[in-house]
């Protein structure tokens, strides 16, 4: 390997994955990294190899044997999409177990979960007082077993406890901001998040902003650049000084730098629609049960992702030196650009 650190990354074409990959490519130690990614598109694989010097393997997340083999050859694995794919995480962990058994290496897994795992069933009707602190390990352990992302998170923490891998789980809040880095410009990576654009698409379709219930519940938020920086902060400390970076059950990193009600988001979308002459009233109205299914695939998903409380305090990353720069005010200020981008795409 010529002394280089072999890194394997999933999700390079995604919103988070592309933002993390570009930071690795621009890292002060980039010359010492040997990066391999898995992508579905042969065309994107070619761009990654020729323009960015990344080894790109064409495959899907169902190619479990291929993934296990790629993981086995990596000291560091960034797993950035699919926080709920149990078969996929088991293949990744098998590859890490094999590497440890054969080389005695203690590989590093940096996995993506999300603050959706903290979500309650408020349905937009109330604010919760419960705030999860990632330095409170007992509170992190107390998250209900059937919570979103939980099955995979527990498998990863238990693998760390077994001693063949060091695991670090990043739990992004609602991520916002349009990504503009070189991988987006090259047509490789997605520029947009999920939660706010979904509310915007629904609002454009119904010509009035909508919300789940009364929009009272609270969620944390984080800018795409800040959350990508958290992955790199964790990576840097995990590689340089593994005893300093908490891992396993001490390795849940909540990625948040602000908090909003869902009403605030929807009201801001509503005002942008008024400004563009699409709606006559900025006040959001509650989605009907039929609309929840139409716009968010199911009532259950809508309640979880757009109507729940998911309150988080990310002290663990900050203790390692993570310094998010954006606030909830920046999130609300970013919404007009998101609306305009989606209007352009619909044209």
Helix content: 40-55%
Q: What is Rg?
A: 20 Å
How many H/I helical runs? 14
Q: How many angstroms does the end-to-end distance come to?
A: 49 Å
Q: What is the 3D shape?
A: globular
Largest sheet: 7 strands, parallel
Brief account:
This protein is of the alpha/beta class and 347 residues long.
Task: Summarize the structure in words.
This protein has helices at 15-25, 42-52, 64-72, 86-103, 137-141, 150-162, 182-185, 195-206, 224-240, 262-275, 289-296, 299-306, 315-319, 328-346; strands at 5-10, 33-39, 55-58, 76-79, 108-112, 132-133, 166-172, 174-176, 210-211, 218-223, 252-255, 259-261, 285-286, 312-313. With 347 residues, it is of the alpha/beta class. Strands 3-2-1-4-5-7-11 form a seven-stranded parallel beta sheet, with helices on both faces. Helix 1 links the parallel strand 1 (5-10) and strand 2. Helix 4 runs parallel beside helix 6 (150-162), helix 8 (195-206) packs across helix 10 (262-275) and helix 8 packs across helix 14.
SSE blueprint and pairings:
Blueprint: E1 5-10, H1 15-25, E2 33-39, H2 42-52, E3 55-58, H3 64-72, E4 76-79, H4 86-103, E5 108-112, E6 132-133, H5 137-141, H6 150-162, E7 166-172, E8 174-176, H7 182-185, H8 195-206, E9 210-211, E10 218-223, H9 224-240, E11 252-255, E12 259-261, H10 262-275, E13 285-286, H11 289-296, H12 299-306, E14 312-313, H13 315-319, H14 328-346
Parallel strand pairs: 1-2, 1-4, 2-3, 4-5, 5-7, 6-14, 7-11, 8-10, 9-13
Antiparallel strand pairs: 10-12
Helix pairs in contact: 1-9, 3-4, 4-6, 8-10, 8-14, 10-14
